[in-house]
Amino acid sequence: MATTLSAHEHPLMKIFSNDFIFSIPRYQRPYSWTTEHSGELLQDLLDALNAAGDVESSGPYFLGSIVLIKGDSAGAQVVDGQQRLTTLTILLSVLRSLGSSEDKSDLTSYIYQKGKRLEGTKDRPRLTLRPKDQPFFWDYIQHEDGLEKLNGSANKSL
Predict the structure, then answer these.
(1) Phi then psi for 128, rounded to 5 degrees?
(2) Is 0.85 topped by the overall pTM?
(3) Burial (CB count <10 Å: 0-12, 13-18, 19+), residue 6
(4) Smallest Cα–Cα separation from 20: which of 70, 80, 82, 61?
(5) Domain limits, the chain
(6) Most buried among 8, 24, 61, 122, by the most CB within 10 A?
(7) Better pLDDT: 15 or 153
(8) What are the pLDDT digits (tens) for 22-57?
(9) What is the distance between the alpha carbons of residues 20 and 127, in angstroms, rounded to a whole number?
(10) Higher pLDDT among residues 59 and 35, named by residue
């Protein structure tokens, strides 16, 4: 069977949309970026934004490549790029916790697709980590009050 390799440039908003539902295959290593790695990514993003002046006038910014196994559906297995996708999801979660109620709803839509009770669908994360890591990631990063729960549990242990 012939396989096709293709490359596409996408805005970050499209990456965290219904067009992509990422999953990390079991064979991938766990998330391992340190605060230094995450800080470098955040600083790169801030530098690019500062150089542009504002988001609307900024040109494309190369965040790095993501290698996927993806067919015609939204489902995509992440072969390379999971550290960046995971860190970006964490960053979106932090921004959500700091934002206004309107911002929280908008930012949540980039973190997970809300289910619809009348349609019988459940909330679906845009990024699903390995089975061992996903429950923590959902409870404390992706869920709306996750960071608050995480901060609360940290304060209780102090």
Answers:
(1) -115, 120
(2) yes
(3) exposed
(4) 70
(5) 14-26+63-153
(6) 24
(7) 15
(8) 999 999 999 999 999 999 999 998 888 887 777 677
(9) 9
(10) 35
Q: How far is CA 68 from CA 32, 47, 61, in A?
A: 19, 27, 20
123/114 Cα distance (integer angstroms): 5
pLDDT band, residue 155 (cuts 50/70/90)? low
Question: How many whole angstroms separate alpha carbon 152 and alpha carbon 154?
Answer: 5
Share above pLDDT 90 across residues of the chain, in percent, rounded to a whole number: 64
Residue carrying the six token digits 């089975």? 131
Q: DSSP for the chain?
A: -----------HHHHTSTT-EEE--TTSPPP---HHHHHHHHHHHHHHHHHHSSTTT---------EEEE-SSSEEEEEE-HHHHHHHHHHHHHHHHHS-HHHHHHHHHHHEEPP-GGGTPPPEESEE--TTTHHHHIIIIISTTHHHHHHHHHHHH-
pLDDT of residue 125: 97
- Please report how the helices 146-157 and 82-98 are oriented relative to each other, as an axis angle in degrees rounded to 10: 80
Tens digit of each residue's pLDDT (9 = 90 or more) over 66-75: 999 998 899 9
